[in-house]
Write a structure and sequence with these properties.
heterodimer; A: about 120 residues; mainly beta; 7-stranded mixed β-sheet; about 0% helix; B: about 110 residues; 6-stranded mixed β-sheet; 5-stranded antiparallel β-sheet; globular
Chain lengths: ~120, ~110
């Protein structure tokens, strides 16, 4: 497809379970971003890749959160030992250029519910 | 204080009205300014992207940036029920920072 694809669309996890969320960016896009969006809030920055390099992970809320983009294309956001406060929509975005994240295009998001 | 402030609304207007949405920011390093539209259970969709102070028009949408006041606006003319969505302002230096979003309802 032509857009950013995220899977799964919905994920229910029991508290303490590990989850992995996948993002397929637009082909050729250099930059990839992960955001967390709580209900009624704007997206909050988690981490940023330029190709395979993770240039900024300052938004990751704890060391339970880990992201990778080993070949500079597909990215995975992993959350270990999920907690209820991790329940949110996780959005992935990609942009053609590196750096400032201009004209970033978003996927549909993965809605994570921790029960 | 958040980097980007946006009135969450909700905002309800009759069809055909002019809508004004606004954000303020505190970080003078922001160089790029964007407006996204987000429908329920969907990802944000880029509407407008501007770099400098001034106005940019695209159809019924006009984006306005005033860097001296650290204030950006989005105007929607002849609003339609299909414009009902949450509108997010966003701005970037190295990362992309979002406002909380304003929920807009256009009533037929």
């Amino acid at each position: 497809g032509a857009g950013v694809s995220q899977s799964p669309r919905y994920k229910v996890a029991k508290r303490g379970q590990d989850v992995a969320l996948r993002c397929d960016p637009i082909s050729g896009h250099v930059s990839l971003f992960w955001y967390q969006q709580a209900l009624g809030q704007g997206p909050e920055f988690l981490t940023y890749f330029q190709n395979e390099a993770q240039l900024d992970k300052s938004g990751l809320p704890s060391d339970r959160f880990f992201a990778e983009r080993p070949e500079g294309s597909v990215s995975t956001l992993k959350i270990q030992r999920t907690q209820q406060e991790d329940s949110a929509v996780y959005l992935c975005a990609s942009s053609l250029v590196g750096g400032s994240g201009t004209e970033a295009f978003f996927g549909q998001g993965t809605r994570l519910t921790v029960v | 204080q958040k980097e980007v402030e946006q009135d969450p609304g909700p905002l309800s207007v009759p069809e055909g009205a002019i809508v004004s949405l606004n954000c303020t920011y505190s970080n003078s390093a922001f160089q790029y300014f964007m407006w996204y539209r987000q429908y329920s259970r969907k990802g944000p969709e880029l509407l407008m992207y501007t770099y400098s102070s001034g106005n940019k028009e695209d159809g019924r949408f006009t984006a306005q940036v005033d860097k001296s006041s650290k204030y950006i606006s989005l105007f929607i003319r002849d609003s339609q029920p299909s414009d009902s969505a949450t509108y997010l302002c966003a701005m970037s230096a190295n990362n992309l920072f979002f406002g909380t979003g304003t929920r807009l309802t256009v009533i037929p």
